[in-house]
Amino acid sequence: HAGLRHDGGGWQIDAQPVxxxxxxxxxxRLLGVDDLLVxxxxxxxxxxxxxxxxxxxPVLRLATARRPDKAPFLQSALLTVPVPDxxxxxxLHGGVQVPVDPASGRLAAGILxxxxxxxxxxxxxxxxxxxxxxxxxxxxxxxxxxxAMTALPGLALVHWDLIPSTRGMVMLEGNTxxxxxxxxxxxxxGLETASLPPLLRAWLPA
Length: 206
Known about the structure:
By secondary structure, this protein is of the alpha+beta class. Helix content is 20%, strand content 28%. It has helices spanning 20-33, 138-150, 180-188, 196-201; strands spanning 4-6, 11-13, 16-18, 59-65, 73-82, 95-100, 110-112, 115-120, 157-165, 168-175. It is globular, with a radius of gyration of 18 Å. The N and C termini lie far apart (39 Å).
């Protein structure tokens, strides 16, 4: 993912200037190797503005799961808060990973994967509170994700990425091949409704 903006003075990708020729070349290169989706920039909702960085909103990842022949349920939730001056693809330091209580939508302390033993109850760059804060629109996001999961009856686990925007929760995509570290992180804090390994084993041939 990359943020593309035009502010009247030229184009920017992830807040870095890029000229129109280089931008066109990049888009054509991406089109040559895969499908390309360009969508409108989403402004983070007002109540989470202090968790945004350079107008990049935090991303809510909801894990929906099901047992064979059962209805889907919310397995866990994780909020990724972007770190200033770090590329979002910097897995270890580019985002503060904040487990979310799936029952209440309340945030726990966050961590950087590059320093996993240092809890982050408040963001160090602006003192914004994480721990104990309730995520607005969480119930709507869960309803949206479970509705999408219901339409995919053959899948055991899907991680849905959503943006809490000024328009409400907006779903970006679903991931069936999610990163296992992020998939199991809420469970390491006791914030999951079911353990993933036995759930997934239930889908294996007998």
